[in-house]
Amino acid sequence: EWGETAMDRTIARPMDLIHSSERCWRQEAVVGWFFKPTMIQHERSSSSSSSVTCRFAAGEQHLLKGILQLQAENLKGRVADKTQGFLTLLHDLGELQDMNKEIGQVVAVTTTTTEDPTMVNNGNGTNKHSCGSSNNNKNQTEAVVGYVLMMPVSLRDRISMVDTLVKNLERQNLMTPGVAYCVGGQVCVERSHRGQGLLRAMYQHHRRQLCRCYSSLVTAVSTANPTSLRAHQKIGFRILATFDDPEDTWHALLWEWNTENVE
To answer: Over 60: is that where the pLDDT of 1 sits?
Structure first.
C-alpha cells in the first residue's frame, strides 16, 4: 500500500504521484518532521520576546481568519500607494477552508511572549489563571503577518481565477501533459514585515513539502502590479504568457521545482 510507506519510498515512486496529489498531501501530514515550522526572526527585550515563523495553518481557524484580515487591509481599493503592491481577489472563509483541506496554506506568524504580572505563583508549583498546567508566568499572542495560498488544479471549479488560468495554459499548450503541477493563489506580506525575505521563506516552505508531489507551480500576477511580479521573479518564477479576464490583465508565471537543492 503506497500510503503506508516512508518518505524515501514516496520519492522513489514519482509516477504514483502524478494523479495522487491529494494522497501525497495526506501522507505528508502524518510525517512529523515534515511540518516543522521555519524560524525567520527572533527578537528579545527585557520583558518580551517575539519571533516570526512560517508554518501550515492546518485546522487553526484563528490563522485562517488572520489571512482574511490581512487580505482585507491590502485589497486594491483600500491601498493608497499601489506601487507597494495590492490584492485583486477577495476570498471568503469557505474558500480558504476548501483550499486548506486540499493543500495546507502557509502563513508567516509572529509569536510574542510577554511576562504576565497577574500570574502569581501559589507556592505549589502552579500559577493563578494557568489552570494548574504550568508554572510559567508568560503570555503568548499570535498574529498573521503574511501568507501564500496554494491549491490543486481540481479546485478550478471552485475558484474562477484558477479555472481562467488553467484554461489559458491548456489552450496554449504551455504545460506538459501528464505532469502534476499545483496553482499558487493570493500572496501577501504585512507592510511592516516587507523586505525581510518572508515571501521567499513562505514559498520555500510550500516547496519543501510539495515538490515530491508536484513538478512545478503556476500562478498569475496582475500586469498592473509590477512590485509583485519582480518579487516572484526573484524567487524563480518566469513569465509563461499574458491573458485577460473580466477583472484584469494577468501574467501567467511558472516556477519549476525539483527535489534537488531544496532550501
So the answer is: no
